[in-house]
Predict the 3D structure of the following.
Amino acid sequence: MLRTIFSALAVAASMILPAAAQCPPAQADDDRYTFSRIDEGYLRLDGRTGEVTICTRKLVGWACQLVPDERAALEAEIARIQGENAALKKELLAHNLPLPGPSSPPPSVPPETPRPQIPGQAEVNKLIALMDQLWRRFVDLVWTLQREILKHT
């Protein structure tokens, strides 16, 4: 009998806990930094800015040094290539040469995006009936659990 009670509680918890897990906890100032232990010391992640620093023990205390951001390096490389591309295009135009590009012009009319289907009244009624049935089952389960618990006390 006790196994039945625990099974029912597990079912009820599995229905309630996923909804509670979707709500993130409020981030306090104490939670701004996250530290992870590494061989040389600690990695510190700033939860607000996303910056990562490596903190190591020095002769006098600790020192944290910013870890290079690969995204900044990639953006710098993109900017360099775009500048080089523009210079090459200017040089081609200066020599009266055509610019390389797509062989066919892009389509002038964008493809039509599908509209979301709005459920009809029949689908809404089915959903309401299903929700009603689930709610009644849940209430019956709670009442059954309550009776079983009171019976054993």
Notes: Residues 19-24 have pLDDT under 50 and may be disordered. Residues 69-99 form one domain. The longest strand covers residues 33-38.
